[in-house]
Write a sequence for this structure.
């Protein structure tokens, strides 16, 4: 595949198109294993918090990996059940009175997302300020650290995957940590500390790095939990992964649920479907932008294709009995940080969820949550490094302030509300910058008379109206003003009106106004077509 622009062609790198090369598989298979380990407790925790069957969370993870991963144009994004939808799902199941009826909403939401992708609604992702996206990533890192600390010390009152400040157990992100420190399980602490040491030091030894550190963490965690059983360090049942065990093929088939199509006329179903489609699409686009930011190869994912892929995933999930899904930044970040190069890692993690559900659920149920918490703690640290804050500070206040506001807002509310607040601040700085740069200002003197040259920028939009109006109003009397539009491809009609009105009225102040290359009307500049 080539991307052509004008007469130039930019060939994609082999890593983007050749999935099953030895070099890529060497990275993608271990990364898929890491994502599987991260996704497993999150899928279960989100299903539990949503008031849905545990199997529905695992099923959504499988579909997110296999179906969405196959259809998506993103190489590193990972889809699955998302914490941002738990409240919507819980309330919807309660209002609709049946999980089967709720599944119809998921099915319809998937169809709506496909429509959004086809009408190219994904282009709104291009308008997310970079500082806000980076702030969102850092905020997710801080939330991961704060939310996983209780699990790391053996206090599992809050469900795995929660990202909101106010928790269902009446605590919040900070009070939950304080409460956890008063209810420490020392067996869990030992497992967490050993797991963290492995995550930090194991990859530094080249010969050992061939085996993924998270796999070693899980094996060591199972062994330590087994050693601690029967003594004062023993873990409780709720401190382990808890996957539903399937006893037979018939029992496995019985876990799937079909949506109740007979309720298609229920108004509440359509309201829920539209809500899920909008929220899931926004979270997906935000996650996609964030993943592209941290992609080492700096690939750009097609947003409209992603909406179609997510829609197909939700359509299938609703049809089979799974939860609604989005692209999820935590799993996607774990994928990137583990060194993934192509979508093979995403698909592999989905297949692992399916295989392990069918083949070895008993073994998986021996994994302590505390060792998985250690894996997520390292992911959180990589997203919120101190060096990131210093880097954003050096970019200037117009980047640092939206970045910091987004972090605080996301941590103290939730992902969408926090990003919305960050967007508002980011847009304020964008508008302020645009309003300050509509022209170049130069003063020359000819005898006793001053001439002020205003050379307008290439594009002068409505946002520049206030700045130009204020500048012209403040010019002193008895001067010559030259307004030069020779460099301008477009001048907004409102700005043109201000310029022409100023020229007509300037004589009252003894000001001579000269217009150079200022047309009466401008057409909006057309974008160059990019052939794919």
């Amino acid at each position: 595949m080539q991307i052509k622009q004008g007469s130039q062609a930019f060939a994609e790198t082999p890593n983007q198109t050749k999935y099953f090369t030895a070099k890529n598989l060497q990275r993608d298979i271990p990364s898929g294993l890491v994502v599987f380990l991260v996704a497993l407790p999150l899928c279960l925790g989100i299903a539990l918090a949503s008031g849905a069957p545990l199997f529905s969370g695992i099923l959504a993870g499988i579909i997110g990996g296999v179906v969405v991963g196959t259809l998506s144009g993103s190489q590193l994004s990972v889809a699955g059940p998302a914490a941002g939808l738990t409240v919507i799902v819980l309330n919807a199941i309660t209002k609709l009175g049946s999980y089967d009826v709720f599944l119809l909403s998921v099915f319809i939401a998937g169809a709506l997302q496909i429509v959004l992708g086809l009408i190219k609604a994904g282009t709104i992702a291009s308008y997310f300020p970079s500082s806000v996206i980076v702030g969102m990533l850092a905020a997710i890192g801080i939330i991961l650290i704060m939310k996983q600390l209780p699990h790391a010390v053996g206090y599992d009152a809050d469900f795995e995957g929660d990202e909101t400040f106010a928790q269902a157990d009446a605590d919040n992100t900070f009070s939950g940590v304080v409460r956890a420190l008063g209810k420490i399980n020392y067996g869990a602490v030992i497992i967490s500390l050993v797991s963290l040491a492995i995550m930090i030091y194991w990859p530094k030894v080249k010969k050992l790095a061939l085996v993924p550190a998270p796999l070693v963490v899980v094996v060591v965690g199972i062994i330590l939990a087994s050693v601690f059983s029967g003594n004062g360090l023993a873990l409780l049942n709720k401190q382990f992964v808890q996957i539903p065990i399937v006893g037979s093929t018939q029992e496995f088939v019985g876990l799937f649920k079909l949506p109740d199509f007979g309720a298609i006329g229920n108004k509440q179903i359509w309201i829920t479907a539209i809500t899920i489609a909008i929220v899931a699409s926004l979270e997906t686009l935000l996650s996609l932008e964030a993943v592209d930011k941290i992609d080492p190869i700096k690939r750009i994912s097609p947003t409209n294709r992603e909406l179609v892929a997510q829609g197909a995933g939700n359509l299938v999930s609703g049809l089979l009995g799974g939860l609604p899904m989005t692209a999820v930044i935590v799993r996607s970040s774990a994928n990137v940080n583990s060194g993934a190069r192509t979508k093979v890692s995403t698909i592999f993690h989905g297949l692992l969820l399916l295989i392990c559900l069918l083949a070895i659920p008993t073994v998986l149920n021996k994994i302590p949550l505390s060792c998985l918490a250690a894996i997520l703690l390292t992911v959180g640290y990589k997203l919120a490094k101190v060096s990131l804050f210093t880097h954003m500070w050096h970019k200037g206040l117009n980047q640092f302030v939206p970045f910091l506001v987004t972090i605080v807002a996301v941590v103290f509310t939730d992902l969408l509300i926090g990003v919305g607040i960050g967007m508002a601040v980011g847009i304020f700085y964008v508008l302020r910058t645009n309003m300050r740069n509509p022209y170049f200002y130069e003063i020359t003197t000819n005898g006793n008379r001053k001439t002020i040259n205003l050379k307008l920028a290439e594009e002068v939009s409505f946002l520049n109206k206030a700045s130009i109006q204020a500048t012209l109003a403040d010019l002193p009397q008895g001067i010559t003003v030259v307004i030069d539009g020779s460099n301008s491809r477009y001048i907004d009609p409102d700005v043109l009106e201000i310029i022409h009105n100023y020229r007509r009225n300037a004589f009252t102040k003894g000001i001579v106004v000269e217009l150079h290359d200022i047309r009466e009307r401008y057409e909006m500049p057309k974008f160059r077509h990019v052939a794919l």
Q: What stands out?
A: Residues 1-16, 527-532 have pLDDT under 50 and may be disordered. Residues 438-516 form a domain with the Transcription Regulator spoIIAA fold (CATH 3.30.750.24). Residues 22-49 form the longest helix (28 residues).
